[in-house]
Amino acid sequence: MEVIKEFGKRFVFFDGSMGTMLQKSGLKPGELPDLLNIKAPEKVEAVHRDYIKAGADIITTNTFGCNPHSLNGTGFSAKEVIKAGIDIARRAGAKVIAQDIGPLGQLMQPMGPLSFDEAYDCFKQQVLFGAESGADLFIIETLSDIYEAKAAILAVKENSSLPVICTMSFQADGRTFVGADPMAAVLSLSGLGINAFGVNCSLGPAELLPIVKQITEYSPLPVIVQANAGLPKISGGETVYDISPEEYTADIVKMADMGVCIFGGCCGTTPDYIAEMKAALSGRKPVPISPNRITALTSGTKNVILDGHVTVIGERINPTGKKRLKQAIKECDMDYITGEAISQRDRGADVLDVNISLPDIDEPEMMAKTVLALQAIVDLPLQIDSSDPAAIEAGVRICRGKPLINSVNGKHESMEKIFPIAKKYGAAVLGLALDENGIPHTAEERYKIAEKILNTAKKYGIPEQDVLIDCLTLTASAQQQDVMATIDAIKLVKQRLNLKTVLGVSNVSFGLPQREQLNSVFLAAAFGAGLDAPIINPLSDVVMNTVRTFKVINNQDKNAVEYVGAFSGETADAEKKVSSSSSDKTLYDIIVDGDRASAADAARKALKSSTPIEIINSSFIPALDIVGKKFEKGEIFLPQLLMSAQTVKNAFDVLKAASSSSEQQNKGTIVIATVYGDIHDIGKNIVKMMLANYGYDVIDLGKDVPPQTVVDTVLEKNVKLVGLSALMTTTVKSMADTITALRQAGADCKVMVGGAVLNEEYAKLVGADFYAKDALESVKIADKFFGN
């Protein structure tokens, strides 16, 4: 498509907000904008015409919420609404039509009920309907979960040949709602075959500047920005925004100077904003971006950069020589496997190797299950390790973030099978220095295989920085004369190819006594040769002490903070307590770790010596408090917060069954609802979970709740605290209407509000008593209000 070829050569302009314009033409509060494609197509067409007149090159269809979840119960199908939306844009005179695909409105597993495959199927339907109806490209926008974005992108790539653009929505703290920063988003999504990446909605352009700067620093793709027109306010009963087209454009010009080449508008923008931007950038050419070509992996919330950093890859999730792990894999005992992951994380692993290869199991299925279980409980990037390409693809596909594939080798058959997987999913790949003739004896021969692997990877379109090399460790007991060839090969790969190197260190000591001693000395020699990422056992103090020591020597551990901490008595004692078995951990530890699978057994064990109230006070509350503090400090993010909350729920169910009604603690009753017209209840559901796990009785009225329903429930139950949620600017008026209805009915209650479009000032404007910026804040408000 011609316009795609223009990305980076000239500035390309999308349109602005559809919702804002439809509100001006009479869209009722709570009315789903997409349905106007059927009910009032002339209004939608008029908006498109206005944006075309303003100079928009690409028109976005009015189909943001056209998925089976959002349209359920409306009487209309996604197919007919999407087709109508594309037809309207065509009639309006759009030369290029982008089918708009928004989030599905549910949390993805493990945080919520929506599986990756279910999300994929929902997006697939939209893609097929759009391609069939004549869309020119797809724009996936306003997503906050890179996992959901991955499902959407794959649905486009696997079910159409059309271009696709993806934009994420970021908060003021520089992360998405579920904790991904711009680097994680770029690392995770830019390799999936999209044509441009960027940010939309979120904030005003001034607040987006630091986020956009990070994206342009790392994105290898054209960058798109579609910002809000500042912050929303209510004036004369209508939602208005506080930044003029001129003010908006001043910051857009700054973004153009950073290298952004595609612009449009989101909430609050109108044709005037598009015209102003286009005029300001008229006659200018985009600034070429030169992104940092770093070698990095990500879990989606935790980024691991190998450049200049020793990276520890934990080796313990590998059944070779591990009888208990073999049993766990055969029995699908995820409790044990995740316990191994937690113990490695706690002892310093940066990345986890995942190898579940055993005969007589369905390895692809087990790999997918294991990856899902691991990323539900630890935030480390994963190394997907298998000799079966099908198992590798199963793991990489379901993986949140950017993983490392272990492995490919110099055999033609291996490269032919593995490189297409790495390319399709944007994964990094580890190349083993062996070929059809086995492992060479000399360093020079191993280097030549590494060079062949790199050159072949480039032919598949895999970036050089995503190719890592393992020069292979031979056992000193059997091939002592070849051990140093590994060290020499690392030097050659670093000097001639400048690639990152990985090494399975423990192989060197196989069959010999005092293995850790030999491993640590060999590791030190490998570090001296330029090794970047050893695959080791993080539970080995001897080996990890070598890592810590080298981090001081290579200036990675600034001021030797980690080194000093590791060798203090306090830390040493703490490390002795680390175990891969959940049975050795307290209920407090299990809650902090978010180990849902172990919670029930731990609660039953605790009941043998304590009452339910004692357990709540000694384990639940302190653990949730420390998790909350970590969340506030940015040490953990929403996925980890929710895992701990769900762990408490699993444990609490056991306590509840063992308690008499008099023992059960109710700290207060709270009514919560997503306001009328708003079908998004992700935030409300998170608040519900957090409040319930802190001991509150929560009456959940659901989503799209009429004001009178809230009033009736509050009066009937004599509820003193109400929580209201809204995601869309078009439904904030419903929030104000609900609060007004409560006041007019004489309800003796206070109201707290929250949602993506709200802030402290906006909360006051709608008449709320409290503003909850996140789920944890709602707990604090409730605790203070009820005097807990």
Keywords:
25 strands; 788 residues; eight-stranded parallel barrel; eight-stranded parallel beta sheet; alpha/beta; Methyltransferase, Methionine Synthase (B12-binding Domains), Chain A, domain 1; 47% helix; 32 helices; 4 domains; TIM Barrel; single chain
Structure characterization notes:
This protein is of the alpha/beta class. It folds into four domains: 2-280, TIM Barrel, CATH 3.20.20.330; 310-555, TIM Barrel, CATH 3.20.20.20; 584-658, Orthogonal Bundle (Methyltransferase, Methionine Synthase (B12-binding Domains), Chain A, domain 1), CATH 1.10.1240.10; 669-786, 3-Layer(aba) Sandwich (Rossmann fold). 47% of the residues lie in helices and 13% in strands. It is built from 32 helices and 25 strands. Strands 1-10-7-6-5-4-3-2 form an eight-stranded parallel beta sheet. An eight-stranded parallel β-barrel has the order 13-14-15-16-17-18-19-20, surrounded by six helices. Helix 18 links the parallel strand 17 and strand 18 (467-470). The radius of gyration is 28 Å and the shape is globular.
Number of domains: 4
Low-confidence stretches: 570-582
* CATH superfamily caption of the largest domain: Homocysteine-binding-like domain
Widest sheet: strand order?
A: 1-10-7-6-5-4-3-2
Second CATH tier, the architecture of the largest domain:
Alpha-Beta Barrel
How would you summarize the topology of this molecule?
Elements: H1 2-5, E1 12-13, H2 18-24, H3 36-39, H4 41-54, E2 59-60, H5 68-71, H6 78-91, E3 97-101, H7 116-133, E4 137-143, H8 146-159, E5 164-168, H9 182-189, E6 196-201, H10 205-218, E7 223-227, E8 232-235, E9 238-241, H11 245-258, E10 262-265, H12 271-280, E11 296-298, E12 303-305, E13 313-314, H13 323-330, H14 334-346, E14 351-354, H15 363-375, E15 382-385, H16 389-398, E16 404-409, H17 412-425, E17 428-432, H18 443-459, E18 467-470, H19 483-497, E19 500-504, H20 515-529, E20 533-536, H21 541-553, H22 561-566, H23 569-576, H24 587-593, H25 596-607, H26 612-633, H27 638-658, E21 669-674, H28 682-693, E22 697-700, H29 707-717, E23 721-725, H30 732-744, E24 750-754, H31 760-765, E25 770-771, H32 775-786
Parallel strand pairs: 1-10, 2-3, 3-4, 4-5, 5-6, 6-7, 7-10, 13-14, 13-20, 14-15, 15-16, 16-17, 17-18, 18-19, 19-20, 21-22, 21-23, 23-24, 24-25
Antiparallel strand pairs: 8-9, 11-12
Helix pairs in contact: 4-6, 4-12, 6-7, 7-8, 8-9, 9-10, 10-11, 11-12, 15-16, 16-17, 18-19, 20-21, 24-26, 24-27, 25-27, 26-27, 27-28, 28-32, 29-30
